Structures are given as C-alpha cells and as structure tokens.
Amino acid sequence: MTPPAPHQQQDAPGIEELQEQESRLVFDRFTHDDAWALGCLLVELARERQAPVAIDIHRAGQQLFHAALPGSTPDNDAWIARKRRVVERYGCASYLVGARFRAKGTTFEESSRLDPDRYAAHGGSFPLTVRDVGVIGAVTVSGLPQVEDHRLVVEALERFLNR
C-alpha cells in the first residue's frame, strides 16, 4: 500500500463520503438563533478537546457568530475567510473542493486560477444548506490540521441537526 501524500491523512474522507455529508447535513431553516446555538456547540466541542481554534458562521454575507479560543491567532481568521470564500464560490465544503482537484492529479492552488491569498480549498468550511433553498452561508473552523477542522464542523452539524 502506498503511503498517503503529505497533504492528506490516511483516514481522510473520500469524495463520496464528503458528498454524502453535504446531502445529509441540511437545515429546514437557519436563523440567527440557530447560528448562535451552533456556534456555542462548536465552542463547547473545541473546549472539551482544548482545540486552539477560531470559529465563524456567516449567512448571506453577514457574520452571525465568531469565537477565538485560547491558542488561536489572527492567522486563523485569515484562513477562515479564505476557506469560506471557497464555499461561497463553489457551493460545497472547502475540503471537498480540494479533494476534487487532488482526484484530478492537481491542486486547487495550481489549477483553480484563483488567488491563493483569497481562496483556500483546505478543510474546515462547510456550507449551510437550507432544504429547497440551497447554500445560504458557511460554518468554518480554523486551527487544527484540515481534516480535523472538517471533522469538528461535521460533528457539530450532526449533533445540532439530530437534536
């Protein structure tokens, strides 16, 4: 068996799993109160793990939630903005966008023709999708390796939607 590429983890989700997550993690509605509750849930999960992350929730161009936990830095906020722009442009998770480029034997940075100072197809930003509406925003985490950022967001969405 070939070892994973340096930019991937061995247990990283594949494209099919990422697409399944997106089709499953859909809201019936998404309000300001939902953003607060989801953000607080993410803070709680991150604190349990002592994760040095920043957390952000945007809807329709408005920041509804932001938290910077101990150990996070201003760089995490810059990563959040870059990952969120990928979700806004492609309408799917930042990690899925990067995985699709890797599956074609290239990278987002090499082939997207987008400014890497403004866009990052790294894990951690996930679309907020409302049933029968579409993508209305993004929830983003930055501070961990990209697969762990992605997994933290997915775990919070699963818990929130299964309440």
Structural topology:
Blueprint: H1 15-24, H2 32-48, E1 54-59, E2 62-68, H3 74-90, H4 94-103, H5 108-111, E3 125-130, E4 134-142, H6 146-161
Antiparallel strand pairs: 1-2, 1-4, 3-4
Family: Belongs to the UPF0303 family.
InterPro entries: PduO/GlcC-like, PduO/GlcC-like_sf, YBR137W-like
Pfam family, one: HbpS-like
Q: How many structural domains in the coordinates?
A: 1
Mean pLDDT: 94
CATH hierarchy: architecture? 2-Layer Sandwich
Unreliably modeled segments: 1-8
Mind telling me the C-alpha Rg?
15 Å
Residues in helix, %:
40-55%
From the N-terminal CA to the C-terminal CA, the straight-line distance is: 40 Å
Shape: globular
The count of DSSP E runs of length 2 or more, i.e. the number of strands, is: 4
Q: So what's the CATH class?
A: Alpha Beta
Biggest β-sheet strands, sense, barrel? 4 strands, antiparallel
Quickly count the helices. Answer: 6
> How do the helices and strands follow one another from N- to C-terminus?
HHEEHHHEEH
The fold-level CATH name is Beta-Lactamase
Tell me the name of the CATH homologous superfamily.
Answer: Haem-degrading domain
Spatial sequence of strands, sheet with the most strands: 2-1-4-3
Measured by DSSP, the beta-strand proportion falls in 15-25%
Structural class: alpha+beta
Can you tag this structure with a few keywords?
four-stranded antiparallel beta sheet, PduO/GlcC-like, 163 residues, YBR137W-like, alpha+beta, UPF0303 protein HCJ95_21780, Beta-Lactamase, 6 helices
How is this structure best described in words?
The protein has 163 residues and is of the alpha+beta class. It has a single domain (15-161), classed as Haem-degrading domain (Beta-Lactamase). Helices cover 45% and strands 17% of the residues. It has helices spanning 15-24, 32-48, 74-90, 94-103, 108-111, 146-161; strands spanning 54-59, 62-68, 125-130, 134-142. Strands 2-1-4-3 form a four-stranded antiparallel β-sheet. A hairpin with a 2-residue loop joins β1 and β2 (62-68). α2 packs across α6 (146-161).
